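Q: For a teaching session next week I want to show students how multiple molecules come together into a single three-dimensional assembly. I've collected the sequence lines for a complex. Could you give me the predicted structure tokens for the whole thing so I can convert them for display?
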Amino acid sequence: MKIRGYVRNDGKVGIRNHVAVISTVHCSSAVAEKIADSVNAVPITHFYGCGQAPADQAMTRRILLGMANHPNVAAVLVVGLGCEQLSAEELGTNVKAKPVRWFNIQDAGGTSQSVQKGVELALELIQYASGIRRQEAELGDLTVGLICGGSDANSGLAANPVLGVATDLWVAEGGSALQCEIGPGIDHIIGRRAANEAVRRQLYDFLDKGWEKTKRSGLSLGELNPTPGNIEGGLTTLIEKQIGGLMKGGTSPVQGLIDRGESPHGKGLWFTEASSGTTDVFRVSDLSAAGAQIIAFTTGRGSPVGSPVSPVVKITGTRNTFCTMRDNIDFNANGVLTGEETLEQSGRRLHEEMIAVANGKLTRNEILGHREFALARR
Amino acid sequence: MIQRQNAMLLNPADNVATALEEISSGADVVAGPYTLVAMDTIPLGHKVALADIPVGKGVIKYGEIIGLCKTFIAKGQHVHRHNVEHRVDEMIFKLREEARP
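A: Of course. Below is the structure for the complete assembly, covering every listed component.
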């Protein structure tokens, strides 16, 4: 299927055309935000970038570079302090296939002069970006990130199964999908879904870590889950609870498991280690950093969370949430519960909505300026 | 008269449906192509059996076995911890060794 996107110099396809202002370190974040606000660029700021253990430092570097090299980003301005662990030069020289500028606050001579310098640089980048036009591209060049947050009983009944249908359609068009929140308890179902024996073993090794973690607490996972609240809500077994979340990925074979912030190695459905043990902002950020041009986010209670670079399509199966959190919800999947739509019909309608977003239709998080970002740590 | 759906069938292979509202004992359960009478009161979000499920057989939701029946479940009955074995760890480990891509 054809879409209209921004084709970058390396052939990657973006569906937005942002200029990103990235801070290397917490100390340069305020200046980066002032610059971004002055010129309507997107700020990507955080609490880290210095004094980190090597593993955390490597993660900071990967996630920030993932954001900078994101296909939805047309150009990048990196704002450093000057004495931090992850230098502006280190980040800037690793941004590929797009214009990038960088400078340090200590070299520019403090806040005022840094903001002035940054605004001048960002102006040029924004003018450059504004000259890029959408052109014909393939849906198959896009990756959708799959996440759920603020789940309720309808997440597993409506929103996730509907997204699963849409994900199957996306993958059938040749696109990639990246699913998070993979955990133990449905190992056999995940194992059957593996594309081959090597992937099955890789997935089991990952799931084993989850089993061992619970075992150390002296209890079996099947006794800890579902929780008393889940049981009161009607969930009977661990398997039942876990399948509800897995549904959002549809039925495609799993091509492999990749690390947080790592991009899929090819087409099809991939799992990422980005886990549910973090806030939704971390997982959305991980999916963005992995290069997901669009994120599909199922929610029961409703969530305002967005991303600086990727439009986030919010899907709920709960009618009340669609009404009370209308500002923040893009898609109502409640019709599958009332019988107004089948899962297949609702999934097709969601697929069409995702294509519209790929072609430029704004999501509610974009309109409202929700650009949350958080850096993962090991 | 076409009755409004009050329970969700997720997969054609399922032998349970999930109540979308509290269904009183004796009331009709309507889930996809199924219409049956509730033998128990089914709370919102809880499961109702669409067919008899013998002891040792799988309770199927999402087209997957979510647990094994531990006391006979009749069509229309409430399906939960009292009649489904919830300790599934061993079953998962057995099944996962048999699972093939």
